[in-house]
């Protein structure tokens, strides 16, 4: 009797992108003070790791909650293609207004993935470096 079992699936993706931390809400001096070398005018890059967790009910026929190929295609289209080897500040519209900190990248990826039709998005975790990870699970309903 596997009907109704709720299972969570985690999948890891990678993209490389450059960014510059600079807020239009702060002055030049304040930007330098807050962001340090991350405020350098020409930016710098990271190899980001994104962990996507979705949940769903086990389908007794397939033995799966969702097809990994469907999730991969969705994440590829919504996140990897628009972000990979891009300048986040210039190439991704939302980051012309919002500073591309990993916090903001994380919530933006969540917003892009929450409409995945085959399973429920539980959480997005973004690793900027081996030392920094950020996690977002959406707003409480
Ligand atoms: Ni950075």
Keywords:
binds nickel (II) ion; alpha+beta; Tetrahydropterin Synthase, Chain A; 5 helices; 141 residues; elongated
Give your account of this protein's structure.
This protein is of the alpha+beta class. It has one domain (6-136): Tetrahydropterin Synthase, Chain A. 31% of the residues lie in helices and 32% in strands. The protein has helices at residues 28-35, 68-83, 88-91, 94-97, 102-113; strands at 6-19, 44-57, 86-87, 120-129, 132-136. The chain has a five-stranded mixed beta sheet with strand order 3-1-2-4-5. A hairpin with a 2-residue loop joins strand 4 and strand 5 (132-136). The protein binds nickel (II) ion (NI). The site of nickel (II) ion (NI) has 4 residues, from strand 2.
SSE topology sketch:
Blueprint: E1 6-19, H1 28-35, E2 44-57, H2 68-83, E3 86-87, H3 88-91, H4 94-97, H5 102-113, E4 120-129, E5 132-136
Parallel strand pairs: 1-3
Antiparallel strand pairs: 1-2, 2-4, 4-5
The chain binds nickel (II) ion (NI).
Q: What is the structure about, briefly put?
A:
The protein has 141 residues and is of the alpha+beta class.
Shape: elongated
The number of helices is: 5
Total domain units: 1
At CATH level 2, the architecture is 2-Layer Sandwich
What is the rounded Rg?
A: 17 Å
Ligands in the model, by name, code or SMILES, are: nickel (II) ion
The oligomeric status of these chains comes to: single chain
What is the strand arrangement across the widest sheet? 3-1-2-4-5
């Amino acid at each position: 009797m596997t009907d109704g079992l709720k299972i969570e699936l985690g999948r890891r993706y990678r993209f490389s992108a450059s960014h510059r931390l600079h807020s239009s809400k702060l002055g030049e001096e304040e930007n330098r003070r807050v962001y340090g070398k991350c405020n350098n005018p020409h930016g710098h890059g990271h190899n980001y790791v994104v962990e996507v967790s979705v949940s769903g009910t086990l389908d007794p026929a397939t033995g799966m909650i969702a097809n990994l190929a469907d999730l991969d295609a969705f994440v590829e289209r919504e996140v990897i293609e628009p972000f990979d080897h891009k300048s986040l500040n210039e190439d991704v519209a939302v980051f012309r207004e919002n500073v591309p900190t990993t916090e903001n990248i994380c919530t933006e990826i969540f917003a892009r993935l929450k409409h995945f039709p085959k399973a429920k998005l539980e959480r997005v975790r973004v690793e900027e470096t081996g030392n920094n990870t950020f996690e977002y699970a959406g707003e409480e309903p």
